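Sorry to interrupt, but I need a hand with the structure work. Go ahead and set the record down below:
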Amino acid sequence: MNFLQNIFRKKNQLKDSIGNNKNQGMELIDLVFSLYDYRINRENLINPKLFKNIRVQGKNIEHKIDIYIEFVQMNNLERTVIKIIDNKIVKDEDVWQFDNLLKDLGYFPKGVLYYNDKIDEKALNIANDKHIQAIYFDIMEEIRTNVLQSISKVLPDENVIGDPFWTLMQIDERTKNNTGNYFITGNSLPLFTSKKLADVCCKQQKGYAVFGISQRHLVFLISLAECGLLPYKLGLIQPSKQSSSTIDYNVKMYSVDYNIIREVYVR
């Protein structure tokens, strides 16, 4: 079950899409908006909102905002206003105008300025002083970043702590890297409730290692099952009842509906 192949197939599709967009003269604002739309759909944000080319009344005047984003994180409403400078050098007056806009809005949003040409030194210094994030937009770098983030969501690494599950994944014998193949048994993807149990079972499987399933990974697996993209059931591995005080690590696997796993284990 190799998720890496699907991820890199999506990467190539994204490259083709970007190439088509360039041929159609896609503007920077549309590229940035599309990438944020992709990120919002990929991540589990609470009450996300994304708008483009909107007009907002400030304390003193009405403003045109290129891109506006908001979502709830850790019970806080996060707001970001994005300014786009397309195909021209960013000057200090551009940054001053953006800073005045942010101040006039009154709710202290985060300010991000995207550009695809150059930014002069004075403008960059003002942006840094005003805590405005100035980002040069490199489409290939954005693709690379999003692909790596997608992979990190799909594939646990050795540093991930199981929350609340652990699983077995195939590793490359030489590099010991995660190959993207989950261990499957009885048409089920086993989720261990104990790392100790997973370690014991792993010793019986050549070429596999134990990896933690975080809340983010668990939500992703459930979303695959929900969309019909997970060809296996989810199975919970728990110790069987012991007839004595000696722990022999006999286990049983219970197939559990993904809705129940989401209700019980997703926080």
About this structure: The longest strand covers residues 46-57. Helices lie at 3-23, 28-42, 92-105, 121-129, 139-154, 195-202, 215-226, 258-265. Confidence is low (pLDDT under 50) at residues 1-5, 17-24, 243-248.
